[in-house]
Design goal:
- The chain has 401 residues and is of the alpha+beta class.
- 40% of the residues are buried.
- The protein folds into 3 domains: 118 residues, no CATH class; 150 residues, no CATH class; 77 residues, no CATH class.
- The longest helix has 28 residues.
- The protein is elongated, with a radius of gyration of 25 Å.
- Helix 6 crosses helix 14, helix 10 packs across helix 11 and helix 11 packs antiparallel against helix 12.
- The strands form 2 sheets. It has a 5-stranded mixed sheet. A two-stranded antiparallel sheet has the order 6-7.
- A hairpin with a 7-residue loop joins strand 4 and strand 5.
């Protein structure tokens, strides 16, 4: 047992309490842990609102902590519950023992008398928290990659993993349980099947979800910075963006040779073109003000600027790949291919983890914050600082190149 590596912090706590014979400590740790109950997928698909107890042949009911969950398969899914939920759901007809992580060094077979259930409730009420704390780096130290291409691709999604309080390197992902993960994709992305999941994932991997207007403005500055090998004046940037939009509008009105012959396009209305130009000029002002704040708060170095906002799509693609596993819209093999691709795409667009992170934060702020510098900005900054300073962060342990 001394050589066993606990998958995560909660299993380490359970292991140490069991080794001491400290069952109060074991229950205290269990009360803070998420417990996952196996279910037949077909039954849950037929009735997502119900959870059933499926006892083993020895009359026990198995549950798993997050780090001990089996790899997802097509037929068994898991629902996330608390120790208090089990205490309140149990009755005299249910199994005599709750089997926690059966077959592992941290297994325990807990009796389920009324006195035991009352004890579970007491530990739950005394617990200071439940589940993984959002805003911190959590990892699997066995059962999840810490280095290599898959780990890099998973680390690209670490902004969301840290913000949501998740294990950043769990490819065999269960999230908050099967039904909650399906609800997440339905409400946030209107995804209800494999085709929908795969379509959104591919768009993210092509950076086709993030605003093309944001990326256009940043691309203009990248070209200018490359051409002139130095800082780009804001008015020069605005003027170059305006010129690019006018040229694009003029080209769109030029005759084109197609298989059907010469096609004469109608010029775009002048008001429409001028509206786009005014919008991009305002956007450049917003980006400039965010970057000023980023530099003041340590998100960018002095003189630093954001290269691209494609990071937001690549980061979300890494997470979307895992969400597909949790919902069974995708397989582990699908997810592995997608996270590797997300890592490669990110590495092609950025020069470092901090460069990538700044792009991710800018996109998130442009979408949600509206220059309020409120909770959306504060959470983005906090996650960036965690990922760039915590010794356990993948940003500090996985080489960018």
């Amino acid at each position: 047992m001394d050589e066993w590596t606990a998958p995560s912090a909660i299993e380490r706590e359970l292991y140490e309490a069991k080794a001491r014979g400290d069952w109060d400590g074991y229950l205290g740790a269990l009360a803070r842990a998420e417990l996952f109950l196996p279910q037949h997928r077909a039954q849950i698909d037929a009735d997502p609102r119900s959870a059933r107890f499926h006892p083993a042949g020895n009359g026990t009911l198995a549950v798993y902590t997050r780090g001990m969950l089996p790899a997802p398969d097509a037929h068994t899914v898991y629902l996330r519950q608390s120790l208090a939920w089990f205490a309140n759901a149990w009755d005299a007809r249910d199994p005599s023992h709750l089997a926690v992580n059966p077959g592992s060094p941290v297994e325990a077979y807990l009796t389920t008398t009324p006195a035991d259930l009352a004890r579970w409730r007491a530990h739950w009420e005394a617990a200071p928290s439940w589940g993984l704390a959002p805003g911190a780096v959590h990892a699997l130290y066995s059962g999840g990659p810490l280095h290599g291409r898959v780990a890099r691709g998973l680390a690209v999604g670490a902004h969301l993993a840290v913000a949501n309080g998740e294990l950043w390197n769990a490819l065999a992902y269960h999230g908050d349980g099967y039904t909650r993960e399906r609800e997440r994709l339905r409400t946030m992305w209107e995804i209800t099947d494999t085709a929908g999941w795969f379509g959104v994932l591919q768009r993210m991997l092509e950076a086709d979800v993030v605003s093309p207007v944001w990326e256009f403005a940043l691309r203009v500055r990248r070209v200018l910075a490359s051409d002139f090998a130095g800082p780009v004046d804001v008015e020069h940037w605005r003027h170059a963006a305006e010129s690019g939009l006018r040229r694009s509008a003029e080209r769109a009105a030029e005759p084109r040779l197609t298989p059907d012959g010469v096609t004469v396009a109608q010029p775009r209305p002048a008001a429409e073109v001028e509206g786009e130009i005014a919008g991009v000029r305002r956007l450049i002002g917003r980006i400039t003000r965010y970057e000023q704040r980023f530099r003041a708060d340590g998100l960018l170095p002095d003189g630093g600027w954001v290269r691209s906002v494609e990071a937001w799509d690549y980061g979300r693609a890494s997470q979307m790949a895992r969400w597909g596993v949790a919902t069974r819209y995708g397989t582990l093999q699908d997810a592995e291919r997608a996270v590797i691709r997300a890592g490669e795409k990110a590495r092609g667009a950025y020069r470092s983890w901090t460069d990538f992170s700044a792009g991710y934060c800018l996109a998130r702020c442009l979408h949600f914050d509206e220059e309020e510098f409120g909770s959306w900005y504060a959470s983005s900054l906090a996650t960036h600082l965690t990922l760039t300073t915590d010794p356990a962060s993948p940003f500090l342990n996985i080489p960018w190149e």
